Structures are given as C-alpha cells and as structure tokens.
Amino acid sequence: MMLVNGQGGMGKSSFAAKYWERYECQYQFLMSVFAANGITDALLRLAMPLNLEFEPTMPNNERLKILIQHIQRLDKPCLLFLDNVDQADELRSLYPLLYRCKNFHILITSRLFEFPYLAKNSINALPLEVALRVFRHHYPQFEEQEILLFEQVYQEVAGNTLVLELFAKNLNYFNKIRKNYSLNTLIEDIKIGLTKLTKQEKIDVMYKTTDFGSMGFGLVFDTPKNIILAMYDLTELSEAEKTILSVFSILPVENIEYEVLEKILIEKQEDEELIEMLQFFFSEQLNNDVESLEMYLTQNPNLTKEEIDTAIKLAQNIYIKNEELEQIFISLTQKGWIEQTETAFKVSPVVQEVVRHKNQERLFNDCGTTIKILSNQLNQHNNPNYYQENYKSVIIYSHYAESIFSKLEYNYHKQDKKDKVFTLALNLLAELIAKYYELKGDLSKTLLFFEKNHTILNNLPQIIDQKEQNNYWFVLAGSFENLGNILKTLINCTFLCS
Asked: Checking phi first, is residue 324 left (phi over 0); if not, alpha (psi -120 to 50) or beta?
C-alpha cells in the first residue's frame, strides 16, 4: 500500500491515473473508487461489477468483509486505486482488512499528512519551468514578455497546479480574438482573492466529482470560483478548528512559529465569571457551536450587539482552551489543512481563499481576539521608547496587521450595513500601520494607510449613536491632521529632490 498525499489541486489523482495508464497491462484486475463519502461506501460500489449480491438487511461492515474475501481470491497482481481518502479514523479502522489483500497493490490518494505503516509519496507544486509549460499549453496566447508576470501568478497561488490550469483556461477564453483580460489584471484580481476574478466564465477541467460514481474523476464544467471553492469542505471540522483556520486565512502565507501563533491566538481573559457561565452553557444547554450561541443571545432584548460579540469571542477562546491549541494544530496538519515545518506552520493561499469565503459571516468574530492582541501590541503611544525597545516584535506584528487589514478590507467594503465594532477595529489597524510606516520613514505607505483610515472613518456617522458623535468629530479632525502632515512632508521631500 502507498499513500500519495499533498494539498488539494496539486495533482495526486492525476499522478495515480498516470500510474494506472502506464502499468495497467501488468495487472490482472484493476479497480478504482472515489472515497469522498467514505471508504466503506466506495468499496461497496465494487459489488455490482464483481456480481456480488447481499441480503437487503445485511449491515455494511458485514458486506465489506464478504467483498474483501471475494477480491482476495482474484488472480494476482491486482491494482486498487482509492481516491480522495481524507478520513484518518476510517482508514485506521479498515487498514487490517485492506492489509489482508496480499494480491493487491493499493494506491491511496489523500490530503492526510501521513499514515502509520504506509509508504508515502508526496505531490508538491510543479517546478516553475514545468508550471510555465503547462500554463502555456492551456493559454496559447501567452507572450514571452509575460514570463515575469507568470512568476507573480505562480507565487500568488503557491504553484497550485489546478488553479494555474483554471487561470490559464480562463485567460484563453477571454483572449481568443483580442486581449480582453490581461495577466496584469489577473494579478490585480488575485491579490484581492483567488475567486475574485473580474472576468470569469465556465471552463472544462478534469477534476474530482461525485457525478461519475465510483470513478469520481471526470470533466467538470464550471467557473474558476466554483471549482476552487469545491476543493475543500469545512463541515466536518470542529468549531475550534474553523476558528483557527479563519485566523490563518488572514495571516501572511509564510511559516509562522508556533510560539508566535500562540501569542496572537489566545488572550488572557479577565472576566472569569463570564467564562464559567459560557462553559456551563455549552456543556448543559446547547449544541457545542457558535451559531447556536449567537441565535440564543440575539433573542435576549437586554443584550447589545457589542455584548453579544464579546460573548461569542469569549466562547471561541473557550473552545480553543478546551481542545488544547497544540492538538488543534496537530489535527489540522494531519488533515492537510495547514503545513508544518519543524515548529512553524503555514497555510496555502487556496485554503485561505476557501476559508475566507465559507467563513465570511463569522470571519471577524473568529479573528477578533487576534486583531485585538495585535492592536494592543502596536498601540503603545504612551510609551515613547516602546518601538525602539521592541523593534523586532513591532516589525512582525505590523506585518501581520497589514496582512489582516488587506484581507478583511474587501469584506468590509462589501458590507451593505457596516458593523460598528468591525469598523472601529479596521480603523484602528489602519492608523497603527500608518504610524508604523511613519516611524520607518516610508511616507508613501504612511499616506496610503492614513487615507484608508480616513475612508473608514467616513462610515462612522451612519453607525454610531448621538452620544458618540462628538468623539467622532475629534477623531476625524485627527485623521485630517495626519493626512495633512504626511502630504506636507511628501511635498517638501519632492521639492528638495527636484
């Protein structure tokens, strides 16, 4: 048995299909099943081609034993291709049965990081040169002077084979007669999000689908957005795992040490009474999920929106404490959602995009604690020496804050009704990032983030009450002053340079 593993869209199934094509003449029998709904269900689909019949009332585990006994009697060598096996518990329980099939080579494709007793062949991103050849094949209009642009696209998607194919075919669709959608525009779009293409149409791509029965691999005709979003399913993850992935989805795509992640994920809580109440609430009264809690709290007319948000954030911290942060990271790594290098972790841009889209209603609440921690770390204006004394930490936290702002800004501007807490949090982040760049001496970036800060402030009068209006005008005046000072400095610098 061999485990062929890797991130979604890297070509695991294509690798196994190529092996099948190349060596099928060496096997007496070949079988392929798509295990998206479980290994047992997938294997039992072989009953019909094997002419096996079961009693209608026979349990599936008994049916599976009979099926395994039957295929053990087939002439060797045989090949069994188990595609899309992502449930470690089921694979663990069925491993002894599969191991008995000594007449079979069993090829298992999975996102699982590893599995005991199985040899592993990991499928990683194609080298840049090979990826370029594939891209050119699907996008014949590609021009030699666009190579540097392609390298940017390659970096933005971390070399994901399927996503590169989708983008190439989408470009081909729009540029067959004349250039209507350039690589430059594609890059601008995917910097906002991999599914946020301003031009996209349905295209054909070979990919996994339940429409093809046990084979599970066929021609899919859909938009790049829908195909990318279908690559990962969050429904079987725990609440704590979903929360951690939400935070990863707005952090930079780079290795981040566990020690740093721990500092920005869990906040020390002072309201022990509220924590105890929520713990009791989850253990005694409701299903263990944030949606049930939010539904319950919104029915209470005495609670404000801010109090409900605070309660939800506290509840999410309780989830993380209860499940132990280390165990969550181990679980997400094993399931193939995040990658581990020694004591550092990172997530792929494809996973980020899927999580941001599917968790968009809860994204700010999931990330609220991290945003608050980073803001507190950077908002140290009462300590004039803080930035100098903690320069390395300030660089890291500012880098994370900028990534978070850029990935939440799109969601914020898409809101029809602006959320006050979300507005204030983003406003503060923009101001803190601007002040970091001001200290660093990067005036253009300083101006950019003060402008973003000012734009967000303009939304406040619509969502704050009358009592807060006076404070708003004071803050807005400060925003104008910041913009004026930076513009004055830029004008002076331009004059001196000229």
From this structure: left
Distance of CA 380 to the CA centre of its chain: 31
Is there a single domain that holds both residue 267 and residue 223? Answer: no
Q: How far apart are CA 30 and CA 52, in angstroms?
A: 17
What residue type is assigned to position 233 of the chain?
D
Containing domain of residue 204, as a range?
Answer: 128-229
User: Are 171 and 107 part of one and the same domain?
Assistant: no
| Cβ neighbours of 119 (radius 10 Å) | 9
Work out whether strand 78-83 and strand 29-34 pair parallel, antiparallel, or are unpaired: parallel
Query: How many other CB atoms are found less than 10 A from the CB of residue 44?
Result: 19
Q: Is 469 left (phi over 0), alpha (psi -120 to 50) or beta?
A: alpha
How far CA 415 is from CA of 83, 360, 411, in Å, comes to 40, 11, 7
Spell out the residues 6+ positions from residue 161 whose beta carbon is closer than 8 angstroms to its own. 9, 10, 11, 14, 125, 126, 131, 134
Per-residue pLDDT of the chain (498 residues; tens, 9 = 90+): 999 999 999 999 989 989 999 999 999 999 999 998 899 999 999 999 999 999 999 999 999 999 999 999 999 999 999 999 998 999 999 999 999 999 999 999 999 998 888 999 999 999 999 999 999 999 999 999 999 999 999 999 999 999 999 999 999 999 999 999 999 999 999 999 999 999 999 999 987 655 444 455 677 899 999 999 999 999 889 888 999 999 999 999 999 999 999 889 876 554 454 555 555 555 555 455 666 667 767 777 777 777 777 677 666 665 555 457 889 999 999 999 999 999 999 999 999 999 999 999 889 889 988 998 999 888 876 677 777 778 888 899 999 999 999 999 888 888 766 677 888 888 889 989 998 898 888 888 988 898 888 888 777 656 555 455 444 444 444 544 555 555 555 545 554 455
d(CA 482, CA 485): 5
Burial readout 108-117 (b: 16 or more C-beta within 10 A, e: otherwise): bbbbbbebee
Note whether 98 and 160 are same-domain residues.
no
Domain assignment present for residue 374? The answer is: no
Q: What is the pTM of this model?
A: 0.81
Is 367 contained in some domain?
no
Q: Do 337 and 409 have their domain in common?
A: no
N- to C-terminal Cα separation, the chain: 70
Residues 117 and 133 in one domain: no
Please answer whether residues 27 and 78 qualify as being in contact, where contact means their C-beta atoms are separated by less than 8 angstroms.
Answer: yes
